[in-house]
Structures are given as structure tokens and as C-alpha cells.
Write a structure and sequence with these properties.
The protein is α+β, with helices and mostly antiparallel strands. It has 2 domains: 10-212, 3-Layer(aba) Sandwich (Rossmann fold), CATH 3.40.50; 241-444, Beta Barrel (Thrombin, subunit H), CATH 2.40.10. It has helices spanning 2-11, 80-93, 108-113, 184-201, 204-212, 256-259, 288-291, 432-438; strands spanning 41-48, 55-59, 67-70, 117-132, 145-159, 164-176, 241-243, 263-268, 271-277, 283-286, 296-300, 307-316, 321-326, 350-355, 365-377, 382-387, 399-402, 407-416, 423-431, 442-444. Strands 1, 2, 3, 4, 5 and 6 form a 6-stranded mixed beta sheet that branches. A 6-stranded antiparallel β-barrel has the order 8-9-10-13-12-11. Helix 2 crosses helix 4 (184-201). The N and C termini lie far apart (95 Å).
Length: 445
């Protein structure tokens, strides 16, 4: 009898009335001045945070068969890739700088590396009424559909400079389709999500953060600097002179604990590389492809002891070098530098590379090899040091040292012999003198 009643409740229209929806309105967009330069953002992920079994939709409308649908299948109706596309189109139309778009002239991955804020979305509530075009197809999504949807989205704005969440906002979206469509359910979901994204863009605190660099009044706790805005603290035209230390003639054995203090991990929104201090004032050299098109980077010192913000001052893309300077030197932090040796090592000399290959847990990795060759690439019109010192993705921009711990170059590229990235023992490094020259840095012996 119990099973019969459940079946009867599913069949009879009176048992499953339409779900009551609130028709949320689209807020008036905020005007972003034409000369403004909003901080670059990127949509990162979408999550559904609706308890399994929660009724989210009524399916059937005026058809003979009707039923209720729980939340378990909605991730398949609109995933993170769909949400990213909708978010990007919506926020771009409002004048925000959303990275990762195909019309950019440079590579999409490099475009993502300049991102300052990552945006994530959590859908915490969905209410829908879905009407199939043919009542014979009661299976969810098997027929043409139309309907209406209401959803609630909690947005989190993550600051890659400070490495913390800086703002959360809740917006609603609503959509109603008038005509039947084979993709009726995903379509109405996407349109409701687009309204929620639009309302985020119309949020004054969100706009003020991205356009004017003003943090919302309530700031989360952080272990990093209390400064709120760093852009333009240093002039890219500042004169930089390295007062070189006396060239070391002491072998590196037993000294790497101290040597490693000069190397750092360099991170932007889309990935990480390596770098090293060249002045006590906090100037750092790395590769241009490590910082991409970002105007900032997050620096992690030896042992992941300190996380510091740095500003990108100069970039020379043909030579693939970049100059950074940390915003503020933390208290009790003494910056270590190494002597710079402009003389090219001899074939067979021992060389060492320092960096953060692959995952962040491999920071402070030291590898050893020999000087293999010094040559000139005619196509690039650039000189390179060639060595069998092992380097991997993440080593880029890290220092290359001679057997006595003097800087002779920096990692830039390596060759792989197969699709899984096994090294061929043929890796390239930029001579330090060339890097300094391209970045207009004076070396005072």
C-alpha cells in the first residue's frame, strides 16, 4: 500500500505543485571609466553546495506525469567550464579585465599568469520548474524543455598578491525561457547564473576593489603585510647598481645552507618559477615567462619561511629576463646575495642550478652538472650556456652557479626526449652579464 501511494503521488499533478520562484532583478551596471585599468581577474571554479536529496526542481508542468528532482544531477547540467564561459562573457561586457580570452594576441596561459584576483562560485540554492515538450519523455532531460530557474551564488575573491581571500559576496539570478529547447535545463541554468554574475559586477565593493584597488571594509586576517595597495611604489626607471662582492674561490661544499638564502620561488596567478636576489634592497632576477604579463609576483624565501610581495619593474621578452623588487623587506630579514662572475665557465667545469622544480614542495632543490657548451643562436641572436645540469618546469629563472658559488647565469629552457618530460641532459642558461645588460643593471666591480 505504501509503494502504491508513492506512485500515485508521483502521477497525480496535485501531489507535485510547481515550486515557488522569486524573480530576481538584474542590477544597473556600474560605469567603469574608459581610462580605468581594472585589476585582471579569472574565474577559477564552480561548486554546488546543496545537500544531496534536496528537492530543487519540479518537472512536468501541465503534463500528465509530474515529478520532483533532487540536486544530485545538476553538476552535469552546468560545470566549471560552462560557468567560466558565462562569467567571462558577462563581466567582460561590463568592462572588467577577465583573463583567458581567445581574442588576446598572446598565449592564453600567459594571459592567465597576469591575474591578480581569482573568482570562485558556490551555488548554495537552486529552484527550478522544468516543462518537457512531450509528456511521453518523462526521463529528465530527454525531451525539449523550457522552464524557469532561481539560484543563489556565493562568490569568493582570492588575492594572489597577498595569497588570501579578500571579499565575499552573495548574489541571486533568475531566468525564464519561453520556447522549448533540447538544452532547456542547461540553458535556463546558465542564464540565471549570468544574472548572478552580472549582479556581482554591479556590486559597489567588488567594483571598488577591482577598479580602484580599495579593499572592502572588513578584511580577513592575514600573516602578510598590512599594506593595501602596491602598484607603482617603485619607478621602473630607477638606476640600479650592483656593488659586486669579491669573486669566491671557496668550493660550495658545506656552504649551500647559506647559498640557498639567495634563491626564491616566484609565483603569479597561473604558475611559478624561480629567481634570486641581486641587491640587498630586494631586487630579484627571473625569466620574463615566469611573470608573464603580470605587474606583481609573490616571492617565497628559503624553506618557505617568508611570503613577500614583489613588483615587476622591467621585462625584456626577447632575452626572457625580468627584474622584480620586493615591496617591503620584513623585519629581521637580511637579504643575501652572491658574487657575480661574468667570465664564461670553461668546458667541463662543475655547475650548480638552484630552483623550485615542479611542485612547491621541491623549492630549494640543487642539481649538479658540467659546462657543456657556450654558443650563439643565430635565429634568436642570443648567447646561451649549455649544460647537463638537470632542470625542470619551475626551475626557470633560478641561478646557475660555478663550483665556488658565483652566479654565472640563470635557467631558461630544457629539452625533453619524450612526452612525459624526461630530460635529454641538454639544458640552456642565460649568461648573467647578458641578463644584466638587457635589464639595464650596472655591475660595479
Amino acid at each position: 500500500m505504501r509503494h502504491f501511494l508513492l506512485l500515485l503521488c508521483f502521477i497525480l499533478t496535485a501531489c507535485t505543485p510547481e515550486i515557488s520562484l522569486k524573480e530576481h532583478e538584474m542590477k544597473d551596471p556600474l560605469v567603469i571609466p574608459e581610462d580605468a585599468q581594472p585589476s585582471p581577474i579569472s574565474f577559477r571554479t564552480l561548486r554546488y553546495e546543496i545537500p544531496t536529496g534536496t528537492t530543487v526542481a519540479s518537472y512536468g508542468c501541465d503534463s500528465f506525469l509530474r515529478g520532483l528532482i533532487d540536486a544530485s544531477g545538476f553538476a552535469k547540467q552546468m560545470g566549471s567550464a560552462d560557468a567560466k564561459r558565462v562569467f567571462t562573457e558577462t563581466l567582460t561586457a561590463q568592462g572588467y579585465d577577465v583573463a583567458g580570452q581567445p581574442e588576446f594576441v598572446f598565449d592564453e596561459i600567459e594571459d592567465e599568469m597576469r591575474v591578480k584576483y581569482g573568482i570562485s562560485a558556490r551555488i548554495t540554492d537552486i529552484k527550478m520548474n522544468i516543462c518537457p515538450g512531450d509528456s511521453r519523455f518523462i526521463k529528465f532531460g530527454a525531451a525539449k524543455e523550457k522552464g524557469a530557474a532561481e539560484l543563489t551564488v556565493i562568490w569568493t575573491v582570492f588575492d594572489y598578491v597577498n595569497w588570501k581571500s579578500v571579499y565575499k559576496a552573495t548574489t541571486q539570478g533568475y531566468s525564464k525561457t519561453r520556447f522549448y529547447n533540447m538544452e532547456g535545463t542547461p540553458l535556463v541554468l546558465e542564464e540565471a547564473f549570468a544574472m548572478a554574475a552580472h549582479n556581482l559586477g554591479a556590486d559597489h565593493l567588488f567594483n571598488d576593489l577591482l577598479v580602484n584597488g580599495v579593499l572592502p571594509p572588513v578584511k580577513p586576517k592575514t600573516v602578510y603585510s598590512e599594506s593595501e595597495h602596491y602598484a607603482g611604489k617603485f619607478s621602473p626607471d630607477e638606476k640600479i647598481v650592483i656593488h659586486n662582492s669579491e669573486i669566491s674561490k671557496t668550493p660550495t661544499k658545506g656552504r649551500f645552507d647559506k647559498i640557498l638564502e639567495t634563491a626564491v620561488r616566484v609565483q603569479t596567478g597561473g604558475g611559478h618559477g624561480s629567481g634570486y636576489f641581486i641587491t640587498p634592497q630586494g631586487h630579484i632576477i627571473t625569466n620574463a615567462h615566469v611573470v608573464g604579463y603580470s605587474d606583481w609576483a609573490r616571492i617565497t624565501t628559503k624553506g618557505r619561511k617568508r611570503k613577500i610581495q614583489a613588483e615587476v619593474l622591467r621585462v625584456d621578452r626577447p632575452r626572457d629576463v625580468a627584474l622584480l623588487r620586493i615591496i617591503e623587506i620584513p623585519d629581521k630579514m637580511a637579504i643575501s646575495t652572491l658574487p657575480i662572475r661574468t667570465e664564461i665557465p670553461k668546458i667541463g667545469d662543475d655547475l650548480y642550478a638552484i630552483g623550485a622544480p615542479l611542485a612547491k614542495g621541491h623549492q630549494d632543490t640543487v642539481t649538479r652538472g658540467i659546462m657543456s657548451k657556450y654558443f650563439y643562436k643565430k635565429m634568436e641572436k642570443q648567447y646561451y650556456i649549455q649544460s647537463d645540469v638537470s632542470i625542470h618546469q619551475g626551475n626557470s629563472g633560478g641561478p646557475l652557479l660555478d663550483e665556488n658559488g658565483n652566479i654565472v647565469g640563470m635557467s631558461v629552457a630544457g629539452y625533453a626526449i619524450d612526452d612525459v618530460g624526461r630530460g635529454a641532459g641538454l639544458n640552456l642558461f642565460i649568461p648573467i652579464e647578458d641578463a644584466l645588460d638587457k635589464l639595464d643593471i650596472e655591475l660595479e666591480e
